[in-house]
Design a protein that fits this description.
alpha+beta; two-stranded antiparallel ribbon; 3 helices; 4 strands; 48% helix; 17% strand; elongated; binds zinc ion
C-alpha cells in the first residue's frame, strides 16, 4: 500500500516545483483562525474596559438629529426618524409593511372613489 503524500506539488510561474505541506496549510489555517479569535477577544476586552470607565460605545450611531414620529399609516406606532430623512419626505412610516399597507389603501381607495366598490 502506497504511502499518501503529505504534501502538494505545485509548479510556480518560473517552472520551479515546490512542495506545499498539508501540515503547513493546516497550521496556516489555524493561525488565521487564532488571529481572528484574538482580534475579537481584544475588541471585546477593549469594549469592556471602556464601559468600565463609563465610555459608551455606540453602534451605528445615526448621523444627525432624530425626530420622534408617529407612523403615517395610522397604526399608532411611534418611531424615530432622521431629521434629514424627514426633510426629504422620508420617515413617514415605522416599517416597510406599513408603507405598503398605506400605499395599497390609497391606491385601492382612489380606485373605489372613482369607480365604486
Ligand atoms: Zn404603521
Amino acid at each position: 500500500m502506497g504511502e499518501e503524500a503529505d504534501y502538494l506539488e505545485s509548479q510556480s510561474d518560473d517552472g520551479a516545483y515546490e512542495h506545499i505541506y498539508w501540515a503547513d496549510i493546516e497550521s496556516t489555517r489555524k493561525l488565521r483562525e487564532e488571529k481572528r479569535a484574538f482580534k475579537l477577544a481584544v475588541k471585546s476586552e477593549v469594549a469592556k474596559e471602556l464601559k468600565r470607565h463609563g465610555v459608551e460605545l455606540k453602534k451605528n450611531k445615526p448621523r444627525g438629529k432624530m425626530l420622534e414620529r408617529t407612523c403615517h399609516c395610522g397604526c399608532g406606532v411611534k418611531f424615530k426618524a432622521r431629521e434629514a430623512d424627514v426633510k426629504r419626505g422620508w420617515g413617514k412610516f415605522s416599517s416597510k409593511s406599513c408603507a405598503a399597507k398605506f400605499k395599497d389603501r390609497i391606491t385601492n381607495g382612489a380606485y373605489r372613489d372613482r369607480y365604486g366598490s
